[in-house]
């Protein structure tokens, strides 16, 4: 009996020492040519575009300029005309494969968020925004309470004022937004010299609401490649690219920014910008 037990014990020890080798393959990665995707207007030249991934076993990640999607099938509405480049990344078992498709938009025949027109105008020339001052006696930039105030009221600056070394509220600069082939943004001098250029987008679902139920910010605006006039927190020259939209009409726009991690509505400091349509 003792010999039998020793034999069984030796088998168990030997088995425990055997390495466990997984033979499951990670799978392959398809080539661009193997992807079966559709990117096309729902009618000729329309700004309503169908995005569809028909590739079996491959997940989807779409980047369609103003937003992103992980759906296999999505119908989107772009707010601008021109040749639109849509990026698709296929999620395969063994990794990812990325490709692009171009679709031409020649008409805006499907409704889009009205904020596109409010910000960038309704024609290809776009819309120009400047500091909200009829002269140099109006406060247009500065600080106030994050979640408490709606315009600069603590440290305040007018066009022409120096905020700090290397930073002036320059009355000779302006911003151009247009939808000519994309959501384009240009910061320039009043004589047309380009200082920065990039793109912009907004998300009106990203509101911030006070404890009393009052909406403090009605949405969020984000820039890429460029930023707004005096585009940094009040006491810094480090560029800021994401802003809370405090108010937005055809003629006026107020933006705000607070440093990440600041508690909301307890009189922490935010920076405010006040603009108007030129």
Characterization of the model:
The chain is mainly β. The protein folds into 2 domains: 32-105, Immunoglobulins (Immunoglobulin-like); 114-277, Lipocalin (Beta Barrel), CATH 2.40.128. The protein is 8% helix and 42% strand. The chain is built from 2 helices and 21 strands. It has helices spanning 2-17, 115-120, and strands spanning 37-41, 48-53, 59-63, 68-69, 73-77, 82-92, 95-105, 127-131, 141-145, 156-157, 162-164, 167-168, 173-178, 184-189, 194-203, 208-209, 215-217, 219-224, 242-248, 252-257, 269-277. The strands form 5 sheets. The chain has an 8-stranded antiparallel beta barrel with strand order 8-13-14-15-18-19-20-21. Strand 13 (173-178) and strand 14 form a beta hairpin.
Report the order of strands and helices.
HEEEEEEEHEEEEEEEEEEEEEE
Please give the CATH class of the largest domain. Mainly Beta
Helix share of residues? under 10%
- Second-tier CATH architecture of the largest domain: Beta Barrel
User: Low-confidence runs (pLDDT<50, min 5 residues)?
Assistant: 1-25
Main sheet record: 8 strands, antiparallel, barrel
Distance between the termini: 100 Å
Number of beta strands: 21
Average pLDDT level:
91
CATH fold field value of the largest domain: Lipocalin
Within the largest sheet, what's the order of strands?
Answer: 8-13-14-15-18-19-20-21
Shape designation: elongated
Give the total of domains: 2
Global Rg: 27 Å
Number of helices: 2
β content, as a range?
A: 35-45%
Structural class: mainly beta
């Amino acid at each position: 009996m003792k010999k039998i037990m020793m034999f069984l014990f030796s088998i168990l020890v030997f088995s425990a020492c055997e390495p466990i080798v997984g033979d499951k393959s990670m799978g392959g990665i398809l080539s661009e040519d193997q992807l079966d995707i559709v990117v096309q207007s729902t009618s000729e030249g329309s700004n309503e575009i169908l995005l569809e991934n028909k590739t079996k076993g491959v997940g989807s990640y779409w980047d369609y300029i103003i937003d992103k999607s992980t759906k296999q099938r999505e119908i989107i509405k772009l707010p601008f005309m021109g040749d639109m480049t849509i990026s698709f990344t296929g999620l395969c078992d063994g990794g990812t494969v990325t490709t692009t498709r171009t679709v031409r938009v020649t008409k805006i025949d499907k409704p889009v968020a009205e904020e596109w027109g409010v910000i960038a105008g309704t024609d290809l020339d776009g819309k120009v925004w400047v500091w909200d001052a009829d002269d140099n006696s109006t406060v247009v930039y500065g600080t106030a309470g994050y979640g408490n105030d709606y315009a600069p009221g603590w440290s305040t600056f007018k066009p022409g004022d120096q905020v700090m070394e290397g930073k002036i509220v320059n009355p000779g600069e302006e911003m151009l937004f247009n939808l000519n082939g994309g959501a384009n943004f240009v910061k320039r001098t009043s004589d047309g010299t380009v200082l920065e250029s990039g793109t912009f987008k907004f998300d009106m679902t990203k509101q911030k609401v006070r404890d009393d139920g009052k909406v403090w910010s009605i949405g969020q605006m984000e820039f890429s490649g460029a930023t707004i006039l005096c585009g940094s927190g009040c006491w810094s020259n480090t560029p800021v690219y994401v802003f809370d939209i405090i108010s937005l009409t055809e003629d006026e726009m107020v933006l705000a920014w607070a440093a990440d991690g600041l508690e909301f509505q307890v009189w922490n400091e935010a920076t405010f910008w006040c603009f108007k349509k030129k």
